[in-house]
Amino acid sequence: MQLKPAELIINEDGSIYHLNLLPEDIATTVITVGDPDRVSQVSRHFDTIEVKKGKREFHTHTGHLNGKRISVISTGIGTDNIDIVLNELDALVNIDLKTRTLKANHTSLNIIRIGTTGAIQPNIPIDTFLISKYSIGFDGLLHFYEHDNINFPEIEDEFIAHTSWDAYKARPYVLSYSEKLGELFADNRIRLGFTATNTGFYGPQQRQLRIKPSQMELMENLSTFSYNDLKLTNLEMETSGIYALAQLLGHEAVSLNCIVANRSTGEFSATPTESVDKLIELCLKKLA
């Protein structure tokens, strides 16, 4: 099957449309970060950097650390951007960009998100680390793709009943991380968590500036939800999309979170940059 030019858009230099990358520009181990400035915060730990490219909010550095080739790419904020980044990363390794045809042999990427998050349980301290063993997505991204037997409908049903979620329209979906990468990053400094991925930072996460959120009970509903002792731990804006597309495309994915805020106590980290850098160092040590 040959993909049409309007389906797979290629730049004049042969690179993929949004990411501005050629297939040889990325490693099979890819770290994703939201903030473009965080790309250099990761790559400054590399021994060498061979690729530096960027377009819009998507910046990529590829280099080596202790002999291991690693790419780090900024996604920007939200699962809409994740839809672009994950699909185009997959295209770089599994589609022949010159002929626009699918490759016979599938390449699986290891995708590691390093991001910031806000805890919703009072017993989770700021400046600590959390790995998203499960994620529940409020974004609806999974529903735009054919999928079968990758989500957990029993947890979803319990959550919908607990929160009267019909008022929010899109059905939440629950996914799990890659067990392979989960084992790689297992560490007594990283707690396991159940992460909620929301569609925005202010109203969707019940922050009120000049507009009052329509669902003022949301935070209480999230923090009190429990399924067989599985409780929601934190809120962010990308993990569910990464888990959804990684599983559909045949890649391994895990989300590592630095707790910079606690919504239940009202605290915010006094040293968020330093805390994130410690998580980056821990991640790179595990990878290389």
Automatic annotation (TrEMBL):
It comes from Maribacter spongiicola. GO terms for cellular component: cytosol. The lineage of its organism: Bacteria, Pseudomonadati, Bacteroidota, Flavobacteriia, Flavobacteriales. It holds the Pfam family PNP_UDP_1. It is an enzyme of class 2 (transferase). Residues 29-269 form the Nucleoside phosphorylase domain. It catalyses: uridine + phosphate = alpha-D-ribose 1-phosphate + uracil. Its EC number is 2.4.2.3. This is Uridine phosphorylase. One of its GO terms (molecular function) is uridine phosphorylase activity. One of its GO terms (biological process) is purine nucleoside catabolic process. It comes from the Bacteria.
